[in-house]
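Async update (no meeting this week)

Hi team, since we skipped the sync, here's where things stand on the single-chain job. The sequence we agreed to prioritize is pasted below, unchanged from the tracker. I ran it this morning and attached the output directly underneath so nobody has to dig for it. Comments welcome in thread, and please keep replies under the output.
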Amino acid sequence: MTENSEIRPFHLDIPQADVDDLFDRLARTRWPDEAPGAAWSRGVPLDHVKELADHWRTSFDWREREAELNSYPQFTTEIDGRRIHFLHVRSPEPDALPLILTHGWPSSPIEFLKVIGPLTDPRAHGGDPADAFHLVIPSLPGYGLSPLGDASGGDLFHVARAWAELMARLGYDRYAAQGTDVGSGVAMLLAMVAPDQVTGVHINGPGPYPLGGPVDLDGLSGADLVRAERFNDFQSHGLGYLHLQSTRPQTLAYGLTDSPAGQLAWIAEKFAEWSGPADEPVDRDQLLTNVSLYWFTRSGASSANAMYEGMRGYARMAGSGQDQAHAGPPMGVAVFAADFSVRALIDPANAIEHWSEFDRGGHFPAMEVPDLLTGDVRAFFRDHRG
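Output:
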């Protein structure tokens, strides 16, 4: 059967029955007990989840947030038998550079909403119109509005090839790539899949692979030592989510699909632990919009299964040596305050062209510090727009 390559407009419209069911379930949440004085040492605290859940049920306006999402041009297309959802926001500047942004876990294109305006229309945001981008922001398979489909949906090489096909269908023969978390891997693989099309790759938050063993602290000092110590602590105490999703995603799926409080806690923990040093680094309603999308699309289960497949793909790639550095388009890296990337360990030869370090922000800079991420993306691609 021939694949339908048509690009179709998309409008998000969650049935009211699903919205009512969400709020009914939240009202009937059966809360767990909590060990006295546990704080964050045993996971996300009860008071934190209760406060978020109460706001979600009594103050959060899904229809308002849904309307905001629908204010951006959205589309779907079928690639390799899988529906891919994406935002496509063109700049008013005719010479804008196409840029594909890829989110990670536990996120969605909602992560990038605060940077869409500044990146597409810098003239209207106090910037140089020469820095403008046409933005393509897909939903990863299994994350929200792109269904996972078969096992290949979690294979990042497969995703990168799909992104190359998507950009070709949109008529972009030269474009840039940016990614965060899982999206960083997709962006780097896209440069391998389509080296003649990708002008450059910008990523944020890279670090030694979480299963690769603790970092040797000898010879490190200052900010590098702090990041390395944070990474080693993350390995010891912060990988429970990864082990569970990459080994038993189906067991986890029942709780995430049946309990909105469970889905909320699963995502809110990561936004709290991985964000930068600030009282409230991520806008609460933006966070709840992302959690709501996961809930309505049952993406707690499908994103866990995507991680399961992705980890197996990584193991196969590592076993074949394909994870080694490849020559290709220039790369830029932005390291934010809560990250644990150490250049001396990741890039000892200083082969990465552009490396920035910031004292604000964390794992979700497009939500936490959109000004810093926008500025760094503009700065890096200023020399790689051709």
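Quick observations from my side:
Residues 299-320 form the longest helix (22 residues).
The two ends are 38 Å apart (CA to CA).
Reply here if anything looks off.
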